[in-house]
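In this supplementary section we document a worked example of the pipeline. Step one takes a protein sequence of length 155 as its only input; no multiple sequence alignment statistics are reported here. Step two produces a three-dimensional model, which step three serialises into structure tokens for compact storage. The input and output of this example are shown verbatim.
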Amino acid sequence: MGEFDPIAILAALERHKTAYVLIGDLAGALHGTDLIARRVEIVPSLKPENLDRLERALTDLGITDPKAIEQMRQKRELTVTTRHGELDLAPEPASSAGYQDLRRAAERQPLGRGLRPAVASAPDLVRTVTGAHDPALATRLRRVIELERSIAPQM
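The serialised model returned by step three reads:
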């Protein structure tokens, strides 16, 4: 595994038109928390055609284990190590019903190089990390939400 490059991981997913929502520390950082992401965490759509696209993206990232997609079909979480760092695949993160649930409030955020991944909303991230017992991220995200609410009336 080389140096962590979340842009390269997300670019592979986008190249293969994989439907997913970004969650975890990277999504929290994009919302303004002070966390440092060490992996990319996504919730992929579990539709068969999307799992085929995800499988092609994983192959592009150097993952050739056929069990990976089978685990997704069984709604089991999986962490894979790509050439560009770790990628967590969470079909149904804690306190959520998965992709369809999270994509409703997700917003596309520009990251550069033409990438605009769907990022889970701050309230949805709070819900998933609270269910996953990640109090540090939940606390930081709640602060971000409070700041956004305090600034919103002034805009």
